[in-house]
Amino acid sequence: MARLLAALALSVPLLAGAGPEEDRAAFLRAYEARFPGIPLEQYVNGALMVSADAMSQFDSIMEFPPFQADIDRGKALWEQPFANGRTYADCFPDGGRNVAGDYPRFDRDAGRLVTFEMALNACREANGEAPYRYDDRATMGVLTAYARSLSDGMRMNIKVEGPRALAHYENGRRFYYRRIGQFNFSCASCHFANAGRILRTEVISPTVGQAVHWPVFRAGDNLNTLHMRIRRCMEQVRAVPFEAGSQELNELEYFLSYQSNGLPLRASVYRK
Known about the structure:
By secondary structure, this protein is mainly α. It has 10 helices and 7 strands. Strands 6-5-7 form a 3-stranded mixed sheet. It has a two-stranded antiparallel ribbon with strand order 1-2. A two-stranded antiparallel ribbon has the order 3-4.
């Protein structure tokens, strides 16, 4: 374990300084060499793709997901009219179907980066409702679990257009490579340099594919959004985590999501 931790701490951010498409191409080349013979579509399954046994267990659990009640609660929130009679479906094209893969996106009119969860809160506020907390599993968590499922099968389609959008992307990239915490790890230390290796009995997932399957339900019924999971990673390297919905995590999500461009979304899945 000590040798593995030392190797992680010494890993080098090989991709820093490239543009968005160059970043993605470099990730793909590196992973194709590390995981020969695994089709790109399998990357939506994260670390499961390197274990036939783990994938079989996943398929069995997903036949009758133990977290279906949470998704049903999210559906009830989605369909419940606001006080003015409108619903979330009125805020998105095609009633909210096949839209989640376009987020995060840079809103030129607002001059800011917008995640899908931010778009849900913007919908609430535009209809006279108070916004949800981004770390509230019982509201934003279950709502997102259902709302994202409406985009299952959609291909991730993140765009980085113009200097302001690129600035947010580059901030996310810097976060990905920045070493933090008492263990002096970065996201790249695990998910680029050591993807596919085992740490604390778990196979480390590659960065490509990480952004397409949130929220996940860990251990069967413990809902985690992407920001919740990143916060837990920060805690595990003994760093003070940023708040869910913070600019820092939004920008990291933007960077991570771009690397999954072209992969199909599959929301609300089981993970150990």
